Amino acid sequence: MKTIKVANIPGDGVGKEVVPAATEVLHALADLHGSLKFEFTEFPWSCEYYLEHGAMMPEDGLEILKEFDAIFLGAVGNLKLVPDHVSLWGLLIKIRREFEQVINIRPAKLLKGVQSPLVNPKDFDMIVVRENSEGEYSSIGGNIYKDEDEIAIQNAVFSRKASERAMRYAFELAKKRNKHVTSATKSNGIIYSMPFWDKVFKEVAKEYPEIKTDSQHIDALAAFFVTHPEKFDVIVASNLFGDILTDLGAAIMGSVGIAPAANINVNGKYPSMFEPVHGSAPDIIGKGIANPIGQIWTAKMMLDHFGEEDLGTILLDIVESVTADGFLTPDIGGSHTTKEVTDEVIARINNYKSEKLNEKT
Amino acid sequence: MKTIKVANIPGDGVGKEVVPAATEVLHALADLHGSLKFEFTEFPWSCEYYLEHGAMMPEDGLEILKEFDAIFLGAVGNLKLVPDHVSLWGLLIKIRREFEQVINIRPAKLLKGVQSPLVNPKDFDMIVVRENSEGEYSSIGGNIYKDEDEIAIQNAVFSRKASERAMRYAFELAKKRNKHVTSATKSNGIIYSMPFWDKVFKEVAKEYPEIKTDSQHIDALAAFFVTHPEKFDVIVASNLFGDILTDLGAAIMGSVGIAPAANINVNGKYPSMFEPVHGSAPDIIGKGIANPIGQIWTAKMMLDHFGEEDLGTILLDIVESVTADGFLTPDIGGSHTTKEVTDEVIARINNYKSEKLNEKT
Ligand SMILES: CC(C)[C@H](C(=O)O)[C@@H](O)C(=O)O
Ligand SMILES: CC(C)[C@H](C(=O)O)[C@@H](O)C(=O)O
């Protein structure tokens, strides 16, 4: 029996609705597998937790999480309770940083039965590799002067090490896909970090002569996501650019509620974290209509990460059959609830299992 | 006779094709007006100029430009000749900075006859007010260490003065429009500049109780441009965020070749600069198929700027009648040339004039 120990952090808002849903799905899959087991431990770390304890997680929170194989997170943030930069740097970004989850990967691909907002979305299937440890998200900077003279300075930090690492990850991924890597840049406007990024990209590209490459300025690239999403395979981007592109990717997929993501610790020292692209979605909390597919697809990425690609593929196929058959939450034009969609996914997993058993007998 | 002295800088690539086109249109409009005259002086400053002179413009370039009422620019950049950060900081961004063109305004609105890539674009009509003097585009930063240790640092600088100024501009604009200002932020990820931006926005908003406000993170906002563009009226954004949003705005308008822009000097000390959103478009140079509408619509913004709003409205109505009747360049699905579209616009201006004359007799 292979046991995967997962720390569940539902977090805020709809996180609390979709993490339990996807957890059930994972149990059903483990069941289907036969010799795989998930052990989930839930942690209530969130903005509500902050109000009670003055911190987003206990002081030894990271020590606790370190013992797990993976972290399965919903969403963090509740502006009514805690300013975003406090909640996120105290939990989400803290885990990404401290556990050296230096790569964030986010596929964008249209599921059958889901309507894209694009007239002619063609058959896009891309994956954004986001540098997840530095760049525009740094804690270097501050304010000076008061009142009308006040100035805030924010430092973006780009190291060759981290840039190369993200780029190599992208090239390795492209090898297994359509052999095309696009670099997101802005070297025409941002004159220190982005020309540097371009230089490193060109050097890394030389190591992969079999991979086609191009560089696009982030403004043009964002526009291309709308006009020609089918032109991309793997895109490598800085922290901020990756953030923007993946929300756009989610939008053209039909809903941010669908889009999956993984924060990967590449050196194996710490657990990786699996959390969908969407946030806590304050407007629909408690209505039972949050789209569980983002979290379920994120679970597939966790399966892939643990070498269970077959199970991952089964799961995504089932999810796609469910959307194709019209089991859709309101964000993608349906009227089904979180529970109905989840139950349908689980029913089909169980069904798949009995079919397989029947085949055997 | 009101004379407007304009410095034309066609720049690179298709800039050289669309600036002359829009200049002809302006002459026709002046003719229609009767007591308005444009005096154009053309400057060859461009990447080719750089190759010959080692600079994008002469040393006294700004002195020369200062004498004009406005600058009418096409596009800057030709990667095959000059690295972008050199060409742009040597001409486009230099003019924006030195002439204190602190505000960049860019409308996004669908023209009749032009197909948006969105399934249901509704009737969006928004305008992005982009802070144009500082932010992520700063010349503060640099590199340290060599080889595998190399690090590049880029400083984003946000002053209260510039942030407030852009925000006030946005609020004043919203007063004359739909009374709604959206602030583009990323205070959950970028922890010094963006919470500061939010703070200033809240304070400025207090001065305009009649204006509805909201703040959206740039990632979500980019996605909203695709899913709900009709929800926006005026959007105020930092230099980089404004850059990204306006290319997206151009994309949902059907083509970056359509989108207009103005760089406004608000204190009246220096000329403002009118340049469309699109770049030099190396892939279509010399084919005669560049869309002239971006540059022509930009000319309308110049007319508005000089108090000729009536003429500006006539021009945009004529442009829209031309697209509605199917005079479209290939980027928007037609097969007309730059010249054909331009000639049609001019013919309709002349026609408008003879109709008016007939009315009078
Ligand atoms: C060419 C580039 C520096 C410029 C910018 O980013 O400002 C362009 O994209 C624009 O939007 O005018
Ligand atoms: C919540 C926020 C800090 C975060 C980010 O920008 O990284 C989110 O948008 C994401 O993409 O995971």
From TrEMBL, chains A, B:
In terms of InterPro entries, this protein maps to: ICDH/IPMDH, IsoCit/isopropylmalate_DH_CS, IsoPropMal-DH-like_dom, TTC_DH
What are the recorded GO MF terms, alphabetically? D-malate dehydrogenase (decarboxylating) (NAD+) activity; magnesium ion binding; NAD binding
Q: Which cofactor does it need?
A: Mg(2+); Mn(2+)
- This protein's UniProt keywords: Manganese, Metal-binding, NAD, Oxidoreductase
Question: EC annotation?
Answer: 1.1.1.83
Q: Which domain of life is it from?
A: Bacteria
First-tier enzyme category under EC: oxidoreductase
* Keyword set includes Oxidoreductase: yes
What protein family does this chain belong to? Belongs to the isocitrate and isopropylmalate dehydrogenases family.
Name of this protein: D-malate dehydrogenase (decarboxylating)
What organism does this protein naturally occur in?
Answer: Planococcus massiliensis
